[in-house]
Design brief:
Helix content is 33%, strand content 21%. By secondary structure, the protein is α/β, with parallel strands linked by helices. The N and C termini lie far apart (35 Å).
Length: 258
């Protein structure tokens, strides 16, 4: 199966109910309706969420799920990104599985880590398609991930080229790979929970301080929550904190997409 295929369906613009929670940023441009498509990458159908009516080049976000898997929360974030004019490609490291609990999520994560070379190949191919596919032709490409996905998003800066920006929500790989302090060249936004212990706000502040000391553009947003506040299937979910994080994310992406 060719890596360049796209399959597409149209969906209505996200509703305004609590589950989707469209952006609440003041003075925002009118939202786009959302087109849900698929990129075929290494024989996987990766969800591709597009702003309907926007022509290429479209700023694009490669999305890394948390240890809970590519849940509906992840796909709702992709809808929201598309509604704001970004294309979003949702990776799946679990071959369609999602976790019913944090414990199951850790088991799925550990199993996926045994396939890290394969997963890296998937990331690389998806990244290339974001630039080369005729629907996207992205000249601005971002990485975004939560927890386990945040670690992958930061780690991926060590082998991907032309990264416009990185958003890492309550996850990072700098502790395991200090070489990232040298290889990171894109602006990065860390978002953490003030009562999170993995990573703590102090840990993230230390990473930001070290990056800035090396002339890197690094920011930290701390919200009043614990770990995994953006995942509805996790006990730590906090809707208000998720909205504060979303505002920070969209501000960062829009500032760096221009």
């Amino acid at each position: 199966m060719s890596d360049s295929k796209v399959q597409s369906t149209m969906v209505a613009q996200p509703s305004t109910d609590e589950d989707v929670a469209p952006t609440i940023v003041a003075n925002a441009e009118p939202q786009h309706a959302v087109e849900r498509s698929f990129l075929i990458v290494q024989e996987q159908r990766l969800p591709l969420h597009l702003p309907k009516g926007r022509e290429a080049p479209i700023p694009s976000v490669l999305v890394f799920h948390s240890a809970m898997g590519r849940t509906e929360s992840v796909l709702q974030w992709c809808d929201r990104l598309a509604a704001r004019g970004f294309a979003a490609v949702a990776l799946d490291f679990y071959e369609g599985k999602t976790a019913a609990s944090p414990e199951e999520g850790r088991m799925l994560r550990d199993a996926a880590n045994h396939r890290s070379a394969i997963l890296r190949g998937l990331v690389e191919q998806a990244w290339k398609q974001m630039q080369n596919h005729e629907r996207l032709l992205a000249t601005k490409r971002f990485l975004l991930g939560w927890s386990y996905g945040g670690a992958w998003a930061t780690y991926s800066t060590s082998f991907l080229s032309e990264v416009t920006g990185v958003v890492a929500l309550y996850g990072q790989a700098f502790t395991d790979d200090p070489n990232l302090y040298k290889t990171l060249h894109a602006p990065i936004l860390f978002i953490g929970g003030e009562s999170d212990q993995r990573p703590t706000p102090a840990k993230l502040q230390g990473i930001v301080k070290q990056l800035r000391s090396k002339g890197k553009a690094a920011e930290l947003l701390v919200v009043p929550a614990g770990h995994a506040f953006a995942e509805r299937n996790h006990p730590g979910h906090d809707g208000a904190a998720t909205e504060k994080a979303w505002d920070g994310v969209i501000e960062f992406l829009e500032a760096n997409a221009t």
